[in-house]
Amino acid sequence: MSAGGVVVLDGPMGTELTRRGVALPLPAWSALALDHAPKLVAAVHRDYVAAGATVHTANTFRTKRRTLGARWEVLARRAVRIARESVGGLRVAGSIAPLEDCYRPELSPGLASRQEHRELARVLADEGVDLLLCETFPDALEALVAVEEAVQTGVETWVSLLPTQPGMLGDASRACVAAGARAVLVNCVAARDTLPFVAELAGLGVPFGAYANAGDEAAGIGWGADAETGARAYEALARSWLDAGATLVGGCCGTGPAHIARLSRLRPQ
Questions:
Q1: What is the pLDDT of residues 69-88, one digit of tens each?
Q2: How many CB atoms neighbour CB 88 within 10 A?
Q3: Which residues, including other chains, have CB under 8 Å from residue 70's CB and lie 6 or more apart?
Q4: Which domain does 50 fall in, by range?
Q5: Which of 32, 72, 191, 222 has an alpha carbon 20 to 30 Å from 244's alpha carbon atom?
Q6: Averaged pLDDT score across all residues of the chain
Q7: Residue 178: which CATH number?
């Protein structure tokens, strides 16, 4: 649950499904489970509820036209319905992700991404999500386009950036806030490297935070590490984000329900 002003997001869907034995080849990745393992998708959502998350992201990260073709809308709507049925009255976020690789900003279509972001945002809004989460964007322009289209639906919009380029985070976050984003986060950065980026978000005038990945195997936070040991290490890092002013925390690739359970105990000092 949220405690002391901290909003706890859920953890990853794709890597958690993989950990549970679901094969998720690219490019469809986590979206494949909407056809082949919908009950397991629901189970992951329920486990994050039990861990204490209060914002749950529907499995729409890869439900886009260029990835799934004609079935993209059917699967996007299915993902939202599975999330809604699994988390009860808790908040459901619709994920809007980059159209290409999250770690390859040079592949971003930039302004040409507008139509695809618009159609997904409208479908997610029509399906009744509580907020739209434009997440894991490494390219400032495409992030701004996605935020603009999400805001146009009238649904509360958050943005989460993946700062792969020097100097990108500050300018991109300010532009997204000006466009209507009501919260800004960083995600899928290694947890041990996340604090400087969180600190950079202070002063935007909106809530901010992070949901980091577990880093490499040597970090001992995820990827087969002892779950409780890794979760404690992640909790300690997340504490530093709260000390920097963050109020939104969750988990990304390589974390799981044990990490979210630790976050649900955090309170800002």
A1: 999 999 999 999 999 999 99
A2: 9
A3: none
A4: 7-263
A5: 222
A6: 95
A7: 3.20.20.330
Q: What is the mean pLDDT of residues 37-58?
A: 98
Rounded mean pLDDT, 151-158: 98
User: Would you state the pLDDT for residue 268?
Assistant: 62
Query: Is residue 1 one of the residues assigned to a domain?
Result: no
Q: Is residue 2 part of a domain?
A: no
Residue 268 within any structural domain of the chain: no
Q: How many domains does the chain have?
A: 1
257/11 Cα distance (integer angstroms): 7
Q: pTM of the prediction? A: 0.95
* SS3 letters across 178-220: HCCCCCEEEEEEEHHHCHHHHHHHCCCCCCEEEEEECCCHHHC
Instruction: Give residue 247's pLDDT.
Output: 97
Residue 186 exposed, middle or buried by CB count within 10 Å (0-12, 13-18, 19+): buried
Q: Provide the token pair at 128.
A: 């009744």
pLDDT reading at 68 higher than 90: yes
The answer to whether 145 and 110 are in contact (CB under 8 A) is yes
Q: What is the DSSP letter of 252?
A: -
Q: How many CB atoms lie within 10 A of CB 137?
A: 29
In a domain, 179, yes or no: yes
